Amino acid sequence: MTAPAAIALDIRLRLLAERGDDAAALVVPDVVLGSPREAADLAAFAAGCDVVTFDHELVDAAALAALEAAGRTIRPGAATVAVAQDKALQRARFAAAGLPIPPFRLLEAPAAAGLVAFGEAHGWPVVAKASRGGYDGRGVWILDGPAAAGDLVAGLTGAGEASPLLAEAWVPLTRELAVLVARRPGGETAVYPVVETVQRDGICRELRVPAPLPPALAATAADLGRRAAAAVGVVGILALELFLVGEGDGGRLVVNEIAARPHNSGHWTIEGAATSQFEQHLRAVLDWPLGSTDLRAPAVATINLLGPADGSDPRSRLRAALAVSGAHLHLYGKAARPGRKLGHATALGATAEEARGRAIAAAAALVGNGAGEGTA
Ligand SMILES: Nc1ncnc2c1ncn2[C@@H]1O[C@H](COP(=O)(O)OP(=O)(O)O)[C@@H](O)[C@H]1O
Ligand SMILES: [Mg+2]
Q1: Is the beta carbon of 173 within 6 A of some atom in ligand 1?
Q2: Fewest CB within 10 A of the end CB: N or C in the chain?
Q3: Ligand 1 pocket residue status of 132, Cβ below 6 Å
Q4: Is 134 near ligand 1, meaning CB less than 6 Å away?
Q5: Residue 191 Cα, ligand 1 centroid: separation in angstroms?
Q6: How far is the C-alpha of 122 from the C-alpha of 172, rounded, in Å?
């Protein structure tokens, strides 16, 4: 999704991909095969680039730091990537910056006693998270008491998993939100309208823009986005995930986590905002002027397309989905597997209901009868 933005601005992308059939490698002509976790591959790749940036986090941050020390331009920088890769580092950084976060404690290895002590101090449930490597709810466990803590630790140890665990207080959230911020090297930012992200089983299913919030809370969310971006020194797009507790004017916001790259919560911007997050990311990492983040319609909705339970490929139903007028379809070129994010549908509308109705109709057509878990 970065490629069309690069084409329009005459930016030549070079891609480091692990496999020739990676989704991005199918559309970027200049592909270097290699691993972003291998220092030598990163160094050889960076040597031909003016600026190196990322669309995922699975990069060796120490190797990036070495490249920076050797004079390469890495944006976001290695220090930001290291924080974005690690939920425990994020919690510590946000605590130091005075951002509202739940109580937390880092356990250097999975230990039931540590989780139980945390639960006794802060109440159950306790949320345990792998500090690194989790996504789409994998690596997040909600523990309702000491027995669940014991089971989790037994399972992790049995699987040979000794990585650090983050214990944090469960937040009684009423909605989940995200704020996208673009930040240039000098610190100039542009903030998008706050998004409501509808999650099921730890997976984002749906985006609603603007999030239904009183103006004061929306302004607070934008401010948290700017402060988080500054706290981690991001250059490029930062997505800040937030929890809303309570509703209306009595609501308050709690910071969850960040991604320092274009993010699923910003896919609505392709058609829904004056500047897409992908173009904005390129502008920011090149230190070019940022674009307007204004909405193109009163309401925007995006439905994530998950692989249908029957394993069928939504691509086979593309024509039927294109018959839904007013919906914008995106397929990522990934092999279909049940539950995998394969694409999304976005629609604009005069009202939230109108936008959502169109996006759902298109996504449902793509999922077909094999739905099961398909759409919202
Ligand atoms: N402290 C918490 N309290 C309540 N729910 C949480 C908490 N932390 C995470 N969750 C739930 O788990 C989901 C996934 O957690 P997150 O830390 O965002 O991991 P991931 O890397 O999978 O996105 C969140 O979107 C939210 O629904
Ligand atoms: Mg998350």
Answers
A1: yes
A2: C
A3: no
A4: yes
A5: 23
A6: 13
Q: Report the SS3 class of residue 303.
A: strand
pLDDT tens sequence for the chain (376 residues): 999 999 999 999 999 999 999 999 999 999 999 999 999 999 999 998 999 999 999 999 999 999 999 999 999 999 999 999 999 999 999 999 999 999 999 999 889 999 999 999 999 999 999 999 888 889 999 999 999 999 999 999 999 988 899 999 999 999 999 999 999 999 999 999 999 999 999 899 999 999 999 999 999 999 999 999 999 999 999 999 999 999 988 999 999 999 999 999 999 999 999 999 999 999 999 999 999 999 999 999 999 999 999 999 999 999 999 999 999 999 999 999 999 999 999 999 999 999 999 999 999 999 987 554 444 4
Please report which ligand is nearest the Cα atom of 203: 1
**Residue 373 CB–ligand 1 contact under 6 Å:** no
Q: Is the pTM of this model over 0.90?
A: yes
Closest ligand to Cα 130: 1
CA of 240 to the centre of ligand 2 (A): 9
Count of CB atoms within 10 A of residue 98's CB? 9
CA of 257 to the centre of ligand 2 (A): 6
Residue type, 303: I
Give me the numbers of helices (H) and strands (E) for the chain, helices first please: 12, 15
Amino acid identity at 17: A
Angle between helices 61-69 and 39-46 (to 10 degrees): 40
